[in-house]
């Protein structure tokens, strides 16, 4: 670079630094300014020999990240300093100890968290990316500012990606849509979330992005005219109340328009809510709520509201801290239009997220609602990280599910308000109150009526959980639970139960092999795992415990083993095979059976060639006219049109482990009627044998007892033991399977 260019660059650097101090959202003290100045000087010195791909000095990047942190997110001086220094330890000769000496432990800890994230291996493999994301979340245990600065860093990288190779652009943009946009949304950084999504679409689907951008520009004039007409219609009434307000239009983001087009399978022209009208009013804190409803009243005097589309987030703010009143009204020209009513305080919190509320509580010591909700969110995040034993991809999918979900508000029997994700069930509610309540859920009442555990809760429902000492999670619960917390706890409980059964199975297997003159040792376990085509020793013990591997199968194994000729050749000619995962401490699922509907029936089917589902995939069945049931993946390209046009032909389907499947059997009992007989029968079935009953019907005729019971059993051996035990009850004469 020439001396003139260098001088110009230095001038620009100084100008941007001054701009950083000027646009800082918080009031900076002299000490704050000194710390930021020092951080700026260290960053300039550390990055002096580095240039970005675009050719500009590298230090412009941390400076831009600091500007986003300072003005768009509204963070404090510590965060601004950490943003300026975020790449220093990773890319230059400065160490963490140097930063601690210069800026203290807090800045050093934040930079350390950011360095750990950057040092995660960059890899195309989604499972590694998911694992990296999990590790990244672990770094925020100490300080949430790590994630906030990381989001700002990602935003600036997305804004300046033009000079990168196309494959890198797509990779970074995909990762942004997959992880960073949902995270920004959950922390309440709505403006940044919107920009990240639009930039993500710009690089992943450039043609679509250009097309929608062009159409948005073409319709902007009509929208501006519509907003002006709307404003004129209500202006007189608002002015009459001496309100200090501003009305503006907020266009929907390109990404959300694209999402709507895909979801509803409609072209751009048929997306009617391309913008919302926002009324932002000035108010004192004590008057805020009153004025919001006053404006609501004025708007609904002029335009008819849609009663099902009222959203009151002032009385019950979202867990991101978002407050506003949203109404949808039939506006001019017969069009539904969304009107958002917020005070200027609510508006800043909506746009800048958690950080913005500090401006309004400076000088106060009380803990604000936003502080509490941020702490609650971090605690829930902590739980999700600690209690997670699933694989990384499943973890990220679950985590994202909780990040992006819209909220509903339900009441406890005492009238306390609980926030849950949309589509949550009573089971999610139970686990959100306490793990123990969730674990012992027996049933639920919603608004006083008994409902199934799969019932979808709606905002305003009052939910009461019925618990029982004997209740415990079963596999079906995973179909009912939607929140990450509930699913993690249920999986953990099922795993523990399976391990208990496996311990019993090991004792049974040892005993049965002993009767065949075989000692259970490592070699025998390995042989049996291979013989029964399993993966781990726990798989073997568990299947013996539930009776899937029965006496006959164990005898067949012993016979094959004692065949001297086979054994001789096995040992002489080749080494005996070794099971790959025999010592793994887990019980694996064999996804080898596809079942349909709520009753998990086995039906004939064919796999759809358009998406070729394989065992374990999330699938659904589609009843064709001439070819029976066709099985498609949930994310099959044809799924959307099939589900929207032929919903009545869709059958729920899932892959399960056939050896652990429950079966339905009908029993007929006859005998002499005695006092308490029915009680003895049901207690034997449910308490002693832990068998579920689907149906029961008892009749007595002149002292003779007749009963029909439908039971759910693991296998034939399980059923045989149940029948034997029922026959022992005093008064029962016969028990036969129908």
From TrEMBL:
SUPFAM superfamilies registered for this protein in UniProt: ACT-like, HD-domain/PDEase-like, Nucleotidyltransferase, TGS-like
SMART domains: HDc, RelA_SpoT
UniProt xrefs under Gene3D superfamilies: 3.10.20.30, 3.30.70.260, Beta Polymerase, domain 2, Hypothetical protein af1432
One Pfam family here: HD_4
Entries under InterPro entries matching the protein: ACT-like_dom_sf (IPR045865), ACT_dom (IPR002912), Beta-grasp_dom_sf (IPR012675), HD/PDEase_dom (IPR003607), NT_sf (IPR043519), RelA/Spo_fam (IPR004811), RelA_SpoT (IPR007685), TGS (IPR004095)
Residue span(s) of domain TGS: 406-467
Biological function: In eubacteria ppGpp (guanosine 3'-diphosphate 5'-diphosphate) is a mediator of the stringent response that coordinates a variety of cellular activities in response to changes in nutritional abundance.
Entry-linked NCBIfam families: spoT_relA
Similarity annotation: Belongs to the relA/spoT family.
The name this protein goes by in its record: RelA/SpoT family protein
Organism: Leeuwenhoekiella parthenopeia
Lineage of producing organism: Bacteria, Pseudomonadati, Bacteroidota, Flavobacteriia, Flavobacteriales
